[in-house]
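Hey team,

Filing this mostly as a record. A colleague (T.K.) asked me to run one chain through the structure pipeline before their review meeting, and I want the input and output archived in the tracker in case anyone asks later how it was produced. No errors, nothing strange. Just documentation.

Input sequence:
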Amino acid sequence: MKTNPVFDTLEPQAVWRHFATLCAIPRPSKHEGALMRHLRDWANARGIAARSDAAGNLVLTKPAAPGRENAPGVILQGHVDMVCECDSCAAGHDFHRHPILPEMADGWLVARHTTLGADNGVGVALALAAAEDSELPHGPLEILLTVDEEAGMGGARHLEAGSLRGRFLLNLDTEEWGAFYLGCAGGVAIEANLDARAVASAAPRAAQPYRLQLDGLDGGHSGIDIHKPRAHAIRQLLALLPRLGAESDFPLIQLQGGTVFNALPRSAFADLALTPAQHAAIAATLADHARRLQQEYPRETPSLTLAPSPEGALPEQALAASVWRSLLRDIHALPFGVSAMSRDFPGVVETSNNLAPLRIAPRHCRCSLLARSQDDAARDALAENIVRQIRASGGTARCEGAYPGWKPNPASTLLQQARLAYQQTFGRAPRLEVIHAGLECGLFALSHPHLEMISFGPDIRGAHAPGECVDIASVGDCWRLLRRLLDTLSTPER
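Output structure:
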């Protein structure tokens, strides 16, 4: 298999060789089959036992190194799928067919115009490197590679209870080197349809379709970045369009923003039916709003444009101003962003909600939301509040795909051994954190309640957004820690 030569000089080679394979073989959520077949063949060729389950997960098992047979079993776990996002410079990139083409920049490996898939490809690569290392001291080893994590945690959700034998699980899916993560948020998706049945019979004779486009936002992870001062493309349009509509009564042809519920939307657009007079009337308001965006979000590069729509001629139907204003008001009123901060972990979000994607057209208005919380009861209360608001406005809504949070266990044997291994390797103590994102550990705790778990990983920036990058040196540090920890956990007591 031909891989990108950028990997040839990176260390540790054992890890980067596997990540190069993950970049070469497409792996969108729910389309991981080709990669899983390749990994199964790779394992079989090396005498590593491999089995797939009904959900599509792959489990590799490796006997203990000589003298470590009585050590507790360890599970190395990561998910193989990735979030697929690209910017306008990579508009032709097909994540189902094309490889990821990263490059090096100042000690980071980066995909300039697409997501990189370091989330969680680097974790998978670390686990595979451990599986093939013939000199690595370890006890009984299982490598659990899950599917569909980014689109609902389907692999972890359908993992057969009791199918794993290990006592300790190392989740390799966090993005801040130097910390052990002991807990995570649970989440639930809300799928909503709002009433968009009323339409205007026709736009004014002189009207032409124009596209109001907002681009250039950073986006990011809808959990770990939700509290940061970043513009949210959908929310920006929801606030802007009523301002424009107050000045000029125009029909709305369609509105679209966001692509997946676990990413902050970087762009959104609305197609408007405008007469020349209406176009002129809103120009000053648009220019003022563009200036405000640039002042409020100076670290981003927001671009707000109004140009003839690429869709061409006016459609037969469009939403009347009274209809779309009511819709946007109802959506904008839904809970958004941070609802509560953690009392136990300063600076960490406790409960939040993200809105994305949103699609509005005549006779169609659908939006998705993702409620998260470290507290499952708070998660459910937030989701139920959203559902009530949507139904009160005449829409329909349902919750689906709920997954639990993972509660910290600071007294676990695994954590104590991991802290020791980190101290011995790097001469300092690790930080202990929880993350406002969904890790599969909460679901593993349901199907395998005996497991002790921690999570760690390299420094990753911009996960779930184009320009995602991973710090090369921190990957090497993760590899050193993983080797030391596997040795520590399997060393016979003297």
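Quick notes for T.K.: The CA atoms of residues 237 and 268 lie 7 Å apart. The domain at 188-403 is CATH 3.30.70.360 (Alpha-Beta Plaits).
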